[in-house]
Amino acid sequence: MRSRLLLPALAILSGFALGAGVLMATGRSPLGMFEAMLQSVSGVNLAAGTFNPRYIGEFIVQSMPIMLTGLSVGFAFRTGLFNIGAEGQLMAGSVAATGVALWVQAPPGIHVILVLLAAMAAGGIWGAIPGYFRARFNVHEVVLTIMMNYIALYLNNWAVVELFRSADRIKTGPFPASALLKAESLSALTRGSRLNWGFVPVLLALLVYWFIIEKTTFGYSLRAVGCNRDGAHYAGMKVKGDIVASMAIAGVFAGLAGAVITVGTFSFGRALPAAEGYGFDGIAVALAGANAAIGIFLAGLLFGMLKAAQTLMQAQGIPKEIADIIQASIVLFIAMKAGIDYALRKLRRAKDPEAP
Amino acid sequence: MSILASMLPIALVYATPILIAALGGLYSERSGIVNIALEGIMMVGAFAAAAVTVTLEPGPMAGCWGILAGVAAGTAFSLLHAFASIHLKADQVVSGTALNLLAGGLTIYLCQIFFDQQRTTAFATGLARLSVPGLAAIPWLGPALFKDVYPTSWLALLLVLLTWLIMARTPFGLRLRACGEHPQAAASMGIRVLRMRYAGVLISGALAGLAGATLVLTQDIQYSVTAVHGTGFIALACLIFGKWNPFGVLGAGLFFGLSQALSIYAKDIPLLRAVPADFFFMLPYVLTVIALVVFSGKSAGPRAAGQPYDPGRR
Predict the structure, then answer these.
(1) Shortest CA gap B214–chain A (Å)
(2) At A277, phi and psi to the nearest 5?
(3) HEC profile of chain A
(4) How far apart, in whole angstroms, are the C-alpha atoms of residue B188 and residue B246?
(5) Nearest partner of B49 among B212, B202, B207, B205, judged by Cα
(6) pLDDT tens for each residue of B219-254
(7) Which partner for A193 in A30, A43, A54, A133 could form a disulfide, CB atoms 3.0-4.6 Å apart?
(8) How far apart are CA A162 and CA A146, in angstroms?
(9) Which residues pair with B149 in a beta bridge?
(10) Which of residues 126-185 of A touch B (CB under 8 A)?
(11) Is residue A355 scored above 60 in pLDDT?
């Protein structure tokens, strides 16, 4: 357990240290970066001595979808599958959300729930397809989900323009208010931020993740498949069914993220020139959060903070891409886990020759 | 039919970087290291090429130095993947993902440092087109292959042949493939598995860097974060669709290039006019999913690809 916490913590620290080093090497002040991060989390501007809650609102808005894609990647990881497809599942979700928001008429309160459910179903299907191919034909899910991402991207762009009749070929018409997660009160509370009710489904999703993985027989079976596929099969678990189910549920989380972005952060469907990287953020979140619900929550806040701080950094003359560099190096350091583990063990053995 | 004739040169321009990067992936995967970082390495190569070219212009050889810079930067960047996945036994997919993430951040960060904006400044010509006077007169093939063609397209075709020669006819190729099929058996014959895998990944880095440089200097006017726009992943698809075989890769690469060209030309072809451009962009990925499922019974890929080398295993 200790090493499960220690490794991500070490990786995160090294990532920030490396980021600060890169800034110094290129003649920028790391202090400005840390001030920007503080301001995006707390709303407090140290230099000017001001407080603006809008930053807190935007920080939460940035954290919400990547927590969900983190849950998506993490859920598949627990079953021993690498879901690079959260991005595509998210886009399938936003297409479905757009469709239900535009075409279905329902009373307020019910409409938005229909939107969320449709997005979850679409994401689930988009995840189940590679899951089925993996289980039935033993095709590697990494390559499959990468391909599914691009199929979803172009499907989304086609749907926005042709299916939803976008006038400017960039975005659809505005959704009716009943389909939105937006709330005047939340926005006013944070002085005009894009904060919305999206955090409610996100927190529910975190709870459901924890409950399925830690508290149900089904979750136990999934984890067993993740630890040792042959062993789980020998113990009578339905490995193939578990693989499909795991990918489908991973897709449900990512699909929900699509809805939270489409009807929460925005209020219209969007055609995209390229993927926005929420799926890759999810990989970073899941890895840094050690695939546990609480870890994914914290890592989501961490990377959400980095994303939210980007505009503030840029305003101070710090290239905002430093946030991406830090996030990527954290992933790289976590990837080097086996090597770091080995080095740590060696270090411990050097101190105490009796240690394992 | 004249549309097809005018489409071929465009298809070749699109196919060239796909082909080169896919060949790069072939070296890496044949040595047993999965390389989903092709996209990221291409970004680094494209950035280096664009930055060097725009700095040296209007010098006569600016484009050539740009290409070389792309190759060098790609090789250096792939060293990270090699070190993490060979020496530190990192999960190769996670390491590749990290490289893809890093490439986007690093290149635009450097753009901001060097050019004070989120892309490089635009270069004037990039790479020059060349013609071979006599051969250009051949009907069909002439205009596509020998008239106003980027030299990198010839290089790509040459690399296909060279890769086939190396893989099928040289001891190096045999050893490389052995490391990707059964590294322990290779080691028992005195082959240095780690060294061969380093070679595989670094060659893939050099080629992906070349591919990125080619892409930006022939299809763009500057490097920006969307310059590579998923071509590295198309290359990965091309490698799989071509069944890890140089000539298979050639066929798949040309086909994918054609499908990209079709997305531009479809509006001029009566039968295809109704098909939205997005469907042509989608085609390589859909075909690869289908190919993966159809070929799934007989695994065509290197058997040990993706697993860290553990000398203690049998």
Answers:
(1) 20
(2) 90, 10
(3) CHHHHHHHHHHHHHHHHHHHHHHHHCCCCHHHHHHHHHHHHHCEECCCCEECCHHHHHHHHHHHHHHHHHHHHHHHHHCCCCCCCHHHHHHHHHHHHHHHHHHCCCCCCHHHHHHHHHHHHHHHHHHHHHHHHHHHHCCCHHHHHHHHHHHHHHHHHHHHHHHCCCCCCCECCCCCHHHCCECHHHHHHCCCCCCECCHHHHHHHHHHHHHHHHHCHHHHHHHHHHHCHHHHHHCCCCHHHHHHHHHHHHHHHHHHHHHHHHHHHCCCCECCCCCCCHHHHHHHHHHHCCCCHHHHHHHHHHHHHHHHHHHHHHHCCCCCCHHHHHHHHHHHHHHCHHHHHHHHHHHHHHHCCCCC
(4) 28
(5) B212
(6) 999 999 999 988 999 999 999 889 899 999 999 999
(7) A54
(8) 24
(9) B130
(10) 133, 137-140, 142-144, 146-148, 150-151, 154-155, 157-158, 161-162
(11) no
Contacts of A84 in chain B (CB under 8 A): 36, 93, 97
Q: Is the pLDDT of residue B314 over 70?
A: no
CA–CA separation, B285 and B234 (whole Å): 7
Contact present, B35 and B240 (Cβ < 8 Å) = no
Mean pLDDT on B262-268: 80
Q: How far apart are CA A91 and CA A259, in angstroms?
A: 9
Q: Which two tokens stand for residue B310?
A: 């553990």
What predicted TM-score, i.e. pTM, was given to this entire model? 0.93
Query: Nearest residue on chain A to B299, judged by CA atoms?
Result: A139
Q: How far apart are CA A18 and CA B155, in angstroms?
A: 38
Cβ density class B273-290: b for 16+ within 10 Å, e for less: eeeebbbbbbbbbbbbbe
Residue A57 and residue A187 in contact, taking contact as beta carbons nearer than 8 Å? yes
Domains, chain B, with CATH or none: 2-128+144-297 (1.10.3470)
- The identity of residue B96, as a single letter, is G
The reported pLDDT for the residue numbered A311 is: 93
Q: How far is B99 from A324, CA to CA, in rounded Å?
A: 11
Determine the Cα–Cα distance for residues A48 and A46; give it in Å rounded to an integer. 6
CB count within 10 Å of CB A4 equals: 12
d(CA B1, CA A88): 37
Structure tokens at A285: 């979140």
At B136-171, the pLDDT tens digits run: 777 777 777 788 889 999 999 999 999 999 999 999
Query: Is A329 in contact with B102 (Cβ distance < 8 A)?
Result: yes
Tens digit of each residue's pLDDT (9 = 90 or more) over B271-284: 888 888 899 889 88
CA distance B39 to B208: 8
CA distance B228 to chain A (A): 10
pLDDT of residue B299: 61
Q: Give contacts of A 44-83 with B, CB under 8 A.
A: 82
Q: How far is B141 from chain A (nearest CA, A)?
A: 32
| Cα separation, B210 vs B231, whole angstroms | 13
Comparing CB atoms, the residue among B85, B113, B288 nearest residue A147 is B288
Beta bridge partners of A270: A171
Q: Which of residues A228 and A97 earns the better pLDDT score?
A: A97
Task: Give the single-character DSSP code of B129.
Answer: P
* Secondary-structure percent of chain B, ordered helix, strand, coil, rounded to 5: 70, 0, 25
Q: Checking DSSP bridges between strand A50-51 and strand A44-45, what pairing results, if any? A: antiparallel
So what's the pLDDT on residue B148?
Answer: 82
Q: Say how far apart CA B35 and CA B77 lie, in whole Å.
A: 13
**Does the structure show a pLDDT above 60 at A1?**
no
* Interface contact flag, A154 B279, Cβ < 8 Å: yes
What three-state secondary structure class fits B130?
strand
